[in-house]
Amino acid sequence: MSFNKLPLEVIEEIFQNLGIEDMMNAWEAVGLDGSESYWGKVCRREGYNKVDGVDDTWRSVVNRNLNWRFRRFVRREYVVDENPHFPNRLHFENTRILTKDPEVPKLGVLNIISSIALRFCR
């Protein structure tokens, strides 16, 4: 019997006993994905929290935390045209300002999610 032919609830019960890295590899190996409630339990166990406006599913919370842990983030540079005197901080948990050049307003950003949504704080 193929492992991925088992009911999803049975697979979730087995996989919940794995460490987070092994669990992610196991889900990839069977070609299935756990339910939203399953990923919520994983996040509570690991101490992961949703970030408002960023995470829409518990699975994305797990991915974001693993990307940060394993340094699989994207480094981007943004040139700010409109306001050369932009604030020194951004409202976004997983971004860091790396450079600020007074001649050419520029932000260096580390992004660990697939889409970027930056909001300036005042």
UniProtKB/TrEMBL annotation:
Residues 1-25 form the F-box domain. PROSITE patterns: FBOX. This is F-box domain-containing protein. It comes from Cuerna arida. The lineage of its organism: Eukaryota, Metazoa, Ecdysozoa, Arthropoda, Hexapoda.
